[in-house]
């Protein structure tokens, strides 16, 4: 996506736009805060130790020796002017660097692509064609929010390295850029799907054609997740439950045996674990807090974050696969989580991906089905309800083998797959329930796998391969011939769906209209 | 589109692609791949065997046991390699390329031509000396790519050209 190119020619300067003039300050702000924080903590320590010394009666004399420069604070106190100058100089250098970087970065929203030029010594020119835009994210770190600024991140299929970041713009401008980008990206897709005429009518779901909903900026809210529910759901997590069991075990051990000291000694060992678990949970709460989902015309707009407010818009047809998951501890509340795979937003690596691929952090089954029907599910809501709750073999579903009992004593009757008009649906798991949907038009490839024990029992597992992401569509322990029929049927359906997709268009990576998403 | 229940029930029409091969004409990779892999294994194992013999002669005869173990491991590896190489086979269908691998752990991957992003051909010095190359097929998902090690170079090039042409003709959106 990026290529070295000559510096911007002055004659086309009016096309190119600058980032917000405050952005160098904001980027430098972090360094400034760090210096300030360090100085403050040092001085604070100093004050504390002075008080401690005076309390000990040693007097103040110890610190009066200017030769003692082991601690920067000492140097600071000895030569306040020099130290101040050094700090100012550091800040000035950082500020200058940021200013120069700002002077040299320009961006442009062109007719077919968005471009960003950066760098002084090492120039970088990154362009993302609209057809490759996978999602557009608007994020507002807390510092940027203070200044009324925002950052626009254009996600393309190459992963985090190929993202194009416009940091920072004023909020209004960022929103305008985002809407422009989405409108243009949507238009370039629409042109193709009209050209190919593949838009099938949507029966059950809500149509999400870009133009029908007014401007792309006008988003129709779909749902909000109350922070209270999110809080309870976040605490109900495998790690916290295990931790709670450990603590209870340790405490009852203390109670039962009066020589509890030995067992009690185990408790402090739990502290770092508890800390780790706590940090993980708080982080999840911070990212998923204030969750809002809206229908932004041609895509879904996800807004989330307690401190770092992010808004991501995912064009509907970029969704590669989706799953509904219900961990065991959520069952009393009937809660589900919905996640999706979007090419280029892989979860993991930078950790940011996970939040961007969650369509519903926690919600009731009806809410979950509502979200899915908003995605344009056609025949599917009843099928999905069955996929979510069904525990017995049912008509239309093809179950795992009865010989799979040995491997999955609880879930072998539930594990099953079925085809719908436009997607393949897999359901699995008795304790943690899971239902995965992969649209036929998004199947990357299919695999069968068989280990030695499975071979002896004439079983095999199947996987529908999707792009990297949190969702994986796998079903274990089918009869071998059932697995082969699965491969045959899904491949056939995918073939039909691919034929409906663009073939001979000059731009290769184009997807059909939103109606093809899931059924 | 497909009627929901029809395809998997179609017993009347037998499934074409099966885990064990079935009626399709599967192409095998070059036996030269077996040779290359055996040589690689020998390069790793021979110094160890020599070292153990030296130690056995100079220090203690007990090390002969280690030598014996190494030889057994070597024979076992050689047996595995021959079995594995003869199990790699592929077939080009109208819209997919299907690759089968493994005997103990069998796997089969079916990659539609329309999903191909690019095809890599690689060949190390040993493989070049034997006139073979490996052909790797990449889709938008890193886990789905199939690889065909050990094709004769001319065949690998031809396969790449065929795949590229079909991929272009059947290309589908991401």
What does this structure look like?
The complex is a heterodimer of chains A (519) and B (174). Chain A has 14 helices and 22 strands. In chain A, 39% of the residues lie in helices and 24% in strands. By secondary structure, chain A is of the alpha+beta class. In chain A, the strands form four sheets. A seven-stranded antiparallel sheet of chain A has the order 8-7-6-12-11-10-9, with helices on both faces. A seven-stranded antiparallel sheet of chain A has the order 15-14-13-19-18-17-16, sandwiched between helices. In chain A, strands 1-5-4-3-2 form a five-stranded antiparallel sheet. The radius of gyration of chain A is 28 Å and the shape is globular. In chain A, strand 13 and strand 14 (335-342) form a beta hairpin. In chain B, strands 1-2-3-4 form a four-stranded antiparallel sheet. In chain B, 45% of the residues lie in helices and 21% in strands. Mean pLDDT of chain B is 85; it is low at 1-12. By secondary structure, chain B is of the alpha+beta class. The two termini of chain B are 20 Å apart. Chains A and B meet through strand 20 and helix 14 of A and strand 4 of B. Strand 20 (445-450) of chain A pairs antiparallel with strand 4 (106-112) of chain B.
Offer a concise description of the structure.
Chain A has 14 helices and 22 strands. Chain A has helices at 23-55, 72-78, 80-104, 142-146, 171-196, 227-235, 238-256, 261-264, 266-288, 353-356, 365-374, 380-389, 452-457, 480-500; strands at residues 2-3, 17-18, 106-109, 113-118, 124-129, 133-140, 149-156, 164-170, 220-224, 292-295, 299-304, 309-315, 319-326, 335-342, 358-364, 398-399, 416-419, 423-428, 433-439, 445-450, 459-465, 473-479.
The description of the largest β-sheet of chain B is: 4 strands, antiparallel
Structural class of chain B: alpha+beta
Spans of chain B of at least 5 consecutive residues whose pLDDT stays below 50 are: 1-12
Cα-based radius of gyration of chain B, to the nearest Å: 21 Å
Global structural class of chain A: alpha+beta
- Percent range for β-strand residues of chain B: 15-25%
* Strands in their spatial order, largest beta sheet of chain A: 8-7-6-12-11-10-9
The major pleated sheet of chain A works out as: 7 strands, antiparallel
- Gap between N and C termini of chain A, in Å? 33 Å
**How many strand segments of chain B?**
7
Counting copies of identical and different chains, the oligomeric state is heterodimer
Q: How large, in whole angstroms, is the Cα Rg of chain A?
A: 28 Å
């Amino acid at each position: 996506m990026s290529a070295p190119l000559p510096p911007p020619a002055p004659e086309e300067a009016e096309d190119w736009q600058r980032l917000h003039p405050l952005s160098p300050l904001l980027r430098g702000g972090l360094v400034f805060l760090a210096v300030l924080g360090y100085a403050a903590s040092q001085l604070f320590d100093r004050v504390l130790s002075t008080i401690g010394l005076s309390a000990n009666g040693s007097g103040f004399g110890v610190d009066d020796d200017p030769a003692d420069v082991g601690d920067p604070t000492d140097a600071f106190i000895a030569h306040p002017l020099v130290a101040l100058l050094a700090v100012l100089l550091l800040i000035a250098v950082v500020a200058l660097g940021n200013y120069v970087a700002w002077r040299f970065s320009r961006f442009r929203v062109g007719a077919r692509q968005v471009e960003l030029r950066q760098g002084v010594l090492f120039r970088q020119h990154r362009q993302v064609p609209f057809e490759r835009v996978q999602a557009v994210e608007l994020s507002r770190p807390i510092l940027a929010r203070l200044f009324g600024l925002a950052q626009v991140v254009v996600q393309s299929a190459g992963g985090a390295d190929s993202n194009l970041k416009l940091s920072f713009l004023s909020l209004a401008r960022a929103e305008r850029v985002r809407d422009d980008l989405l409108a243009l990206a949507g238009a370039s897709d629409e042109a193709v799907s009209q050209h190919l005429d593949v838009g099938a009518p949507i029966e059950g779901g809500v149509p999400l054609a870009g133009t029908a909903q007014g401007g792309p900026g006008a988003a129709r809210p779909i749902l909000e997740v109350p922070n209270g529910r999110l809080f309870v759901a976040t605490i109900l997590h495998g790690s916290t439950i295990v931790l709670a069991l450990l603590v209870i075990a340790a405490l009852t051990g203390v109670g039962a045996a009066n020589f509890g000291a030995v067992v009690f000694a185990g408790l402090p060992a739990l502290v770092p674990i508890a800390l780790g678990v706590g940090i993980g949970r708080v982080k999840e709460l911070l990212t998923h807090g204030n969750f809002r989902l809206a229908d932004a015309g041609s895509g879904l707009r996800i807004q989330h974050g307690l401190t770092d407010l992010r808004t991501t818009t995912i064009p509907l047809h970029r969704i590669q696969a989706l799953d509904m998951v219900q961990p065991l501890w959520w069952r009393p509340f009937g809660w589900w989580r919905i996640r999706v795979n979007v090419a280029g937003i892989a979860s993991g690596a930078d950790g940011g991906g996970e939040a961007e691929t969650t369509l519903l952090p926690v919600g009731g089954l009806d809410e979950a089905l509502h979200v899915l029907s908003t995605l344009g599910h056609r025949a599917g809501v009843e099928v999905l309800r069955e996929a979510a709750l069904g525990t017995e073999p049912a008509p239309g579903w093809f179950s795992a083998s009865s010989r799979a009992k040995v491997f999955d004593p609880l879930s072998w009757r539930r594990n099953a797959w079925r085809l719908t008009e436009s997607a393949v649906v897999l359901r699995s798991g008795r304790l943690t329930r899971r239902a995965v949907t992969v649209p036929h038009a998004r199947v990357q490839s299919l695999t069968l796998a068989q280990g030695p024990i499975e071979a002896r029992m004439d079983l095999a597992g199947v996987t529908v391969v999707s792009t990297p992401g949190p969702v994986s569509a796998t079903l274990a322990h089918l009869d071998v011939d059932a697995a082969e029929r699965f491969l045959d049927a899904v491949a056939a359906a995918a073939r039909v769906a691919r034929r409906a997709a663009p073939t001979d268009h000059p731009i290769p990576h184009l997807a059909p209209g939103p109606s093809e998403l899931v059924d | 589109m497909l009627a929901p229940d029809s395809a998997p029930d179609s017993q009347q029409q037998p499934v074409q692609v099966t885990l064990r091969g079935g009626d399709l004409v599967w192409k095998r990779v070059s036996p030269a791949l077996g040779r290359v892999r055996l040589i690689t294994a020998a390069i790793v194992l021979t110094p160890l065997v020599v070292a153990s013999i030296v130690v056995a002669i100079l220090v203690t005869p007990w090390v002969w046991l280690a030598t014996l173990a190494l030889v057994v491991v070597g024979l076992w590896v050689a047996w595995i390699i021959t079995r594995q190489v003869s199990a790699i086979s592929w077939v080009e269908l109208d819209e997919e390329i299907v690759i089968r691998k493994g005997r103990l752990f069998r796997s089969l991957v079916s990659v539609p031509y329309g999903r191909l992003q690019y095809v890599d051909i690689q060949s190390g010095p040993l493989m070049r000396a034997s006139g073979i190359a490996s052909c790797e097929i990449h889709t938008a998902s890193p886990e789905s790519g199939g690889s065909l090690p050990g094709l004769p170079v001319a065949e690998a090039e031809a396969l790449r050209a065929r795949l590229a042409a079909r991929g272009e003709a059947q290309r589908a959106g991401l």
